[in-house]
């Protein structure tokens, strides 16, 4: 069980529950607590939430099962795992693209994810220093803008965060994750529930509930569907090699379906609780609005922590947990590329790690500057570096990767192989899964991919 050697082959999670824990650690992150509330806010609430939930169940879960199945059969990094299955089945080399695009998307996302994770480090230290006490909505907004306007501050936190990720990936994902996550995940959950209780008691819970769950047909749009689908993939860590890499460490006898359901359910519950904890505060605080954008939680939560009893303690613990949740996600973003380079070039893990993290760090500086000096520098159609990476990964690469995965597993991979890996308890569920991959997922993914790109360019 040593992952520090030259090769990851043969590495297996120490305990059965570790796959669920590690995959949940990958899935639950900034996407749930930072991104979900703000994309719901920007896209008008109820209709968006409904689309997101439908996509999780009908597209996200089947694709996650497909990815884990490929990883477990391949028993190696995503690029080699897909190549092996292509070779075994005599399929066209075209399908190897799945592994490549996953590893590349993970690398691109890592570059900006680490920048946002840096914000949580900054907020952790601000909270510990008592800077939230008595903060107003306007004051909080100004503090956030001040952070974004300081490239050095952003770059330093981004560097610290990338460094933290490098350390765990260097030590060996399995050892690092198995120890840490058993504590982090339950704690994060408890703290979110406490925040929810606080928000419900002082904020406008009714308004938040109506905003998130009352379905308004006028809120349905192709642009919204594309954002919802991209987010469903992002939050479940799909089409990025992460689930395939973690699946490759899964012991042979485990039921993939059950585990994937558990991970998806936990991820969704955390996102919904985060939304229900944040919107009551947003609606009850003058100067804050739901459509705030990426700063939503960074301006709303400090106001809540600044006003509540023992807010310094809760705020500090909360941001510490955000840091940890983001950390377990960046680890899974870096791991697939490191595993590949280590195996492909017989390079030491330390070297591959430094090389890839260094590249992602450098690209991340482009995102750091997108909030200040390069804010108006357009990479494509008015999008700055961060805007472009965010758009390109989530609205193009992830749906495209998902489409390839669905078609490959649904149509190309042999049914017996899938059956053997999945070990389905029910033949009906197995056939339903295959049907979703064959027909529904490709059709929906293609429609939404095209509509999303059209929406952006028109
Ligand atoms: N799922 C993570 C989140 O919601 O924050 C982000 C992520 C992690 C995406 C790892 C992809 C990945 F491979």
Describe the fold and architecture:
- Helices cover 77% and strands 0% of the residues.
- By secondary structure, the chain is mainly alpha-helical.
- It has a single domain (4-457), classed as Amino acid/polyamine transporter I (Up-down Bundle).
- The longest helix has 34 residues, at 311-344.
- The chain binds 4-fluoro-L-phenylalanine.
- 4-fluoro-L-phenylalanine binds next to helix 1, helix 2, helix 5, helix 10 and helix 14.
How would you briefly describe this protein structure?
By secondary structure, this protein is an all-alpha fold. It has 18 helices and no strands. Bound molecules: 4-fluoro-L-phenylalanine (PFF).
Number of domains: 1
The largest sheet, given as strand count, sense and whether it forms a barrel, is: none
Report mean pLDDT, rounded to a whole number.
90
Number of strands: 0
Order of helices and strands: HHHHHHHHHHHHHHHHHH
Q: What general outline do the C-alpha atoms trace?
A: globular
As a percent range, the share of helical residues equals over 70%
End-to-end Cα distance, whole Å, is 52 Å
Secondary-structure class: mainly alpha
What is the number of helical segments per DSSP (H or I, 4+ residues)?
Answer: 18
Rg is 21 Å
Small molecules bound in the structure, each named once: 4-fluoro-L-phenylalanine
Which parts are unreliable, with pLDDT below 50 for 5 consecutive residues or more? Answer: 1-7
């Amino acid at each position: 069980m040593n992952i520090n050697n030259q090769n990851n082959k043969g590495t297996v999670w120490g305990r059965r529950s570790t796959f669920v824990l590690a995959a949940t650690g990958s899935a639950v992150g900034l996407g749930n607590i930072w991104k979900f509330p703000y994309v719901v806010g920007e896209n008008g609430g109820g209709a968006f939430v409904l689309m997101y939930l439908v996509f999780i169940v009908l597209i996200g879960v089947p694709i996650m099962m497909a990815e884990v199945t490929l990883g477990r059969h391949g028993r190696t990094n995503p690029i080699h795992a897909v190549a092996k299955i292509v070779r075994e089945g005599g399929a066209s080399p075209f399908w190897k693209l799945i592994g490549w695009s996953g590893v590349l998307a993970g690398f691109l996302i890592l570059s900006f994810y680490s920048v946002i994770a840096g914000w949580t480090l900054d907020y952790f230290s601000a909270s510990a220093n008592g800077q939230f006490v008595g903060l107003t909505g306007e004051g909080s907004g100004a503090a956030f803008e001040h952070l974004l306007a300081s490239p050095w501050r952003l770059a330093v936190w981004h560097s610290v965060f990338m460094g933290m990720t490098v350390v765990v990936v260097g030590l060996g994902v399995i050892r690092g994750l198995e120890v840490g996550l058993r504590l982090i995940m339950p704690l994060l959950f408890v703290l979110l529930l406490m925040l929810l209780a606080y928000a419900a008691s002082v904020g406008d819970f009714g308004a938040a509930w109506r905003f998130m769950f009352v379905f308004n047909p006028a809120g349905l749009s192709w642009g919204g569907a594309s954002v919802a689908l991209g987010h469903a993939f992002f939050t479940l860590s799909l089409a990025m090699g992460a689930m395939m890499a973690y699946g490759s460490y899964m012991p042979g006898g485990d039921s993939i379906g059950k585990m994937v359901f558990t991970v998806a359910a936990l991820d969704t519950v955390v996102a919904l609780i985060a939304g229900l904890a944040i919107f009551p505060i947003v609606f009850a605080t003058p100067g804050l609005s739901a459509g705030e954008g990426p700063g939503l939680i960074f301006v709303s939560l400090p106001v809540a922590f600044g006003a509540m009893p023992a807010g310094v303690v809760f705020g500090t613990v909360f941001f510490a947990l955000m840091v940890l949740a983001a950390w377990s996600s960046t680890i899974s973003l870096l791991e697939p590329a490191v595993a590949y380079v280590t195996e492909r070039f017989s390079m030491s893990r330390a070297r591959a790690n430094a090389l890839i993290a260094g590249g992602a760090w450098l690209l991340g500086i482009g995102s750091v500057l997108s909030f200040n000096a390069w804010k108006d520098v357009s990479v494509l159609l008015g999008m700055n570096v961060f805007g472009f990476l965010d758009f390109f990964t989530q609205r193009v690469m992830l749906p495209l990767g998902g489409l390839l995965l669905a078609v490959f597993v649904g149509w190309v991979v042999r049914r017996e192989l899938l059956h053997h890996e999945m070990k389905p308890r029910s033949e009906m569920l197995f056939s339903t899964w295959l049907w979703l991959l064959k027909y529904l997922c490709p059709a929906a993914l293609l429609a939404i991919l095209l509509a999303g790109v059209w929406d952006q360019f028109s």
